[in-house]
């Protein structure tokens, strides 16, 4: 980074309609911040991409990206992409702190989160950077796309808690970030939706095409234009902006934003031929099997396992002819009855499952622990393999104390279609449905799944639903229920 007093680092952001280059002084921008406005389709994201690409080798960059449009910077410029949905709150805070420490350029992608979670995640991330120790106050551009989402002017459909923490973090960034080396670059579709105390801290402006009178008048005021000139903002072409500020120009200047190397994952929709199917064919396609639940042709109810399997095996071993060269028998000790053996094994399984950390241990470690506990009680486990253990242990974790109980017969049969690692969450959902209880929340399912990532739980539910094992339904009030079509049961509705 250039030392204090060094020459300014200028980048070319675009050209005037007459072909003159327009530069942005990055050193000045770090001290004075930037506000970008433009309606959807005006070229606002293209402008941010140009700014980021041209300054990538000059200054550290942190991008808050609600749509995942800037992740392509990673391949060309080495930005580290952080998927906000993949981390817990504490992990996001630690990542934010390490970014200041190691001066990494990053993109925080929030596109897989709902708006409430986006706001909370971005707030924790920004606060962690803001709270870095003084020796880590290195200069960095903090680019926030769709800033009206993170600093709304008024309460909307999001929770008050999410709005409060997000607005506070954005206010800190724009009002107090400069002394900590954080220079806010915020972009919004509408100035009227952006909190005024956040927008007011910017001294540089790039205003793109907008059509609403209230936004045009406010943009003209910020550019120092007379209100009768405000309508000219409506006539700006796509990719053309009016720039003003100490880092850009002392007088309003029209800028055609230059080209970029990377692209967004979203593209402008174009026209394509309409389907050639007739109205009757389309109607049939739309309504085909609309009310039919997923079928599982391979699901069949086998004959019940005989309860004398273990006993017969014990009998055959006890009455097998002894080898003539066999060593002298060991001292006899009382052999527990098969039912006693089974009851003791279930007791051990359920005791192990009560440990809240058990699901975070490997299956091999758990199986070894189980066999040791069995031997200590004089129980033979020669007929039990690791697969049988994993499936029995999954039932114990889900609260099914005895899988061979008659009421669980159909469930255990259906569970043969479920992979071993997904069995415990599936059993837990099924048990809730069979008892007409609410579906366990994501944190509970994550714990029995052996993870701390809610995103992994969502992927698991998606997998089970695509396989026809469950059906997730959310009603208009936001309450979620999960059904098991093969069993004909559904959990009670609960807030998702």
UniProtKB/TrEMBL annotation:
Region (Disordered) location: 291-340
What is a GO molecular function of this protein?
ATP binding
> What UniProt keywords are attached to this protein's entry?
ATP-binding, Nucleotide-binding
- Identify one Pfam family in the record: DUF87
Gene3D superfamilies given in the database record: P-loop containing nucleotide triphosphate hydrolases
> Ranges for the AAA+ ATPase domain?
30-220
Q: Which stretches are tagged as biased composition: Basic and acidic residues?
A: 330-340
Q: Which protein is depicted?
A: ATP-binding protein
Source organism = Novosphingobium lindaniclasticum LE124
